[in-house]
Amino acid sequence: MTALKTLLVAAALIAAPAAHAADLTLTFPGLKAKTGTVLIAVYDSPERWASGKPTRAATASAAADLPTAKLEGLPDGTYAVRAVHDVDGDGKMGRNPFGIPTEPYGFSNDAPPVMGPPAFEAAAFPLKGAVAQAIHLN
C-alpha cells in the first residue's frame, strides 16, 4: 500500500502545473551621467516594499547607451521596482544632511514619490510572460 501512495504522490507532482516564469526587462533612458551603476530592487508584495527587502536585485551599467537590466525566471505576479543611479559608485543612494536624496532615483510606472517612496500599488504592474518597462530617474 505504501508503494501505491508513493506512486500516486509522484504522479500528482508530475501532473501538477509548473509555476510560470516571466522575464522583466528594465531600461533607464535619459541618465544625466554615464558614470556609476543603476541599482535595482524588485518587490513582489506590499509587505516587502514597506520593509525594503526586495525579492530580487540587479544592476545596470550607467555607461551603456541605454542602461538595461533583464531579470529572468520571475514567477507570474504583481511587482514593483525601485531604482537609484549610484553616480559615485559607493553602493548606496546619496543623501544630504536632511535625508533628501542627492542621486537620481525612480520607481516602476514612473510613480511619483510623495514625502517618500510611493505606495506599492502606485508602482505595481502585472508580470506575465515578457514585460518591458522604462523607468525615468529624477
Structure notes:
With 138 residues, the chain is of the alpha+beta class. The chain has one domain. It is 17% helix and 36% strand. It contains three helices and eight strands. Strands 2, 3, 5, 6 and 7 form a five-stranded antiparallel β-sheet that branches. A three-stranded mixed β-sheet has the order 4-1-8, with no helix packed on it. The radius of gyration is 19 Å and the shape is globular. The chain starts with a helix and ends with a strand.
Key traits:
single chain; 138 residues; alpha+beta; five-stranded antiparallel beta sheet; 8 strands
Helix residue percentage: 10-25%
Q: Give, in order, the helices and strands.
A: HEEHEEEEHEE
Mean pLDDT, all residues: 90
Domain module count: 1
Strand content: 35-45%
Low-confidence stretches: 6-18
Distance between the termini: 65 Å
- What's the alpha carbon Rg, rounded to whole Å? 19 Å
Summarize the biggest pleated sheet: 5 strands, antiparallel
Structural class: alpha+beta
- Shape verdict: globular
Query: What is the overall number of helices?
Result: 3
Number of strands: 8
Quick summary of this structure?
The protein has 138 residues and is of the alpha+beta class.
